[in-house]
Amino acid sequence: MTRTLKTTCFQLSLEKQDNYDLVKEKILNFHQANDKTDLYVLSELCVGGPGADKSEYYLEKYLSKFQEIASDLGIWIIPGTFYEKVDNKIFNVAPVINSSGSLVTKAKKIFPWLPYEKGVESGDDVCVFEMPNIGKIGVQICYDLWFPEISRMQALNGAELIINPTLTPTKDREIETVMARAVAAQQQLFYLDVNSCGDQGCGKSIVCDYNGEVVHESKGSEDIFTVELNLEDARESRKNGIYDLGQPLKSFRDHKIFSELYDSKNLGYLASLGPLQEKNKDKK
Questions:
Q1: How far apart are CA 70 and CA 76, in angstroms?
Q2: CB–CB of 129/137 below 8 Å?
Q3: How far apart are CA 237 and CA 222, in angstroms?
Q4: DSSP 125-194
Q5: For the chain, which domains are there?
Q6: pLDDT at 280 (0 to 100)
């Protein structure tokens, strides 16, 4: 069975703010010159840059514009993230827009980059959404990567791919690429982390597979790249083990104490992975 998601990631060279026209141009130019892909992903705060007080770059000003792009091109888009004010609280959110231009969901950043990302509230729900004929996908935002509990919750709810729009300009980016590989292996899923470059980020976007292997890693300059990820391969890894060896998700599922720590679980999905047992002794 194939559940392949063709995803184009836009690691763009951006100014500190006011990047909408550039972002739109890059999307349209790429789409015109390349075969259709299923999903476009951009980096955190790619349009307006950091600063929760800049209301001119709030989501309400741009959501309909990206919905129109998605509908016109017939493609799913995660257009990075935007600040959004809700009940006098400001959140950092990533909208997920389908190929008809409809808003599917919004992921809220659970861990703002404190104490630096001032004035931003913490989200309280992990984001997992269903993409028809593909499977369940989790969305994190930047610093959420540093908290493995979020990835664990998404995996327990059936996510076989996590997408993380990121804005990292700092020297700890190398550490984040290591963590992306670790999360991918620990949770046995694809991990896709898209950073910016130029005046915003330092690049080094990374895509990892369910074994923690690097599928693509960008350098520090602009990089628009496409990866094809078969989510069925992640499911098979969870059923049979990493390299037909360790089966960490099922081990966690079956642990009498640790599995009780998470109330939100897709029990049907977890049961479908089968029993925790040896698969191939020859590959030890």
A1: 6
A2: yes
A3: 32
A4: S-EEEEETTTEEEEE--GGGGG-HHHHHHHHHTT-SEEEEE----STTHHHHHHHHHHHHHHHTSEEEEE
A5: 4-232 (3.60.110.10)
A6: 60
Buried b (16+ CB within 10 A) or exposed e, 22-34: bbeebbeebbeee
For residue 224, the model assigns a pLDDT of: 98
For residues 243 and 31, what is the distance between their CA atoms, to the nearest angstrom?
36
Return d(Cα 250, Cα 235) in angstroms, integer.
11
Q: Which of 77, 68, 71 is nearest to 8 (CA)?
A: 77
Cβ contacts of residue 235 below 8 Å, gap of 6+? 135, 160, 273
Tokens of 46: 């790619």
3-state DSSP assignment of residue 284? coil
Q: Are 247 and 186 in contact (CB under 8 A)?
A: no
Closest listed residue to residue 72, CA positions, set 99, 38, 36, 95:
99
SS3 content of the chain, % helix, strand, coil (to 5): 35, 25, 40
Please state the pTM of the whole predicted model. Answer: 0.95
User: Is 208 in a helix, a strand, or coil?
Assistant: strand
Q: What is the pLDDT of residues 152-167, one digit of tens each?
A: 999 999 999 999 999 9
